[in-house]
Give the backbone structure.
Amino acid sequence: MPAILVLDDSATMVMSLSRVLKNAGYDVETAGNGKEGMTKLAAGLKPSVILTDLNMPQMDGIAFIKEARKNASTRFTPIIVLTTESSGQKRDEARVAGASAWLTKPTEPNDLLSTLKQLLPK
Amino acid sequence: MMHVSGEASENLVCVVLAAQVAELRRRVDDGATIELLWRTSDVLTQLSGLVQQFASRCQETDSELNEQCRAAVTAEADVRRLLESLAFEQAQRNDFTCQTVDCVVTALERLAGTDGSASNGLLLDDLAALYVSEEQRKVHDAAARRFAIGATSGSNGTDACCREGPGE
């Protein structure tokens, strides 16, 4: 089963994302912010896809994406941004940092799952 | 009740409002309703499995009951999908509410001078820099526009609400 790393500082969002992904057959690892996510990656976690919020304490989503792209094991891992933010400027920042896709909250479970399927390595 | 005056009083009002709003955030973000929706979905899945087993056992002996069981399983799948969508959407709406509240708390703390930043006070642009969503910016722009219209109408004696067009 492909593993998805979910980063969000909202416990309710983490729970809901985990449920949707687990029900769809994915293994899920979670982190409450970018720093925690990097710690998990440094400990050897190799997710097939990373799903991250942007606005998080300690290390935000953009900083996390930049760090993840420096890490050899996640240099090419698809990263989906899932955020309330919808400004073009933030979207550009995320893309330049290395984000692969962007979803604006609120989104439907099916939209999330179809974006995931498109990005999962074949 | 303690009594303070002048600027200290305004700062205190900001601190108290920030605490009130932060308390509201804690209540919104407790996630109990969303968790209950997910648990309900789990129980429905379990019940559906049992009904399916029951349906296959009575397949030969009671075709009518078997048909009713199959219909119940189909209905359960529909309801469960809707529940899960609702839980997912509600979690995202909570997240948006919490982020908006966080912005208000930060702004109030900055106005009170208790946020630890070196800057004093808060300008409109400082406030805009705290936003994390387009919805917040839209509300900001609409409020600023209403205020500008109100200020203009105040100077010439016209009621602000009468000058605002439909859909503003």
Summary: Residues 3-119 of chain A form a domain with the Rossmann fold fold (CATH 3.40.50.2300). The CA atoms of residues 63 and 106 of chain A lie 23 Å apart. The longest helix of chain A spans residues 11-23.
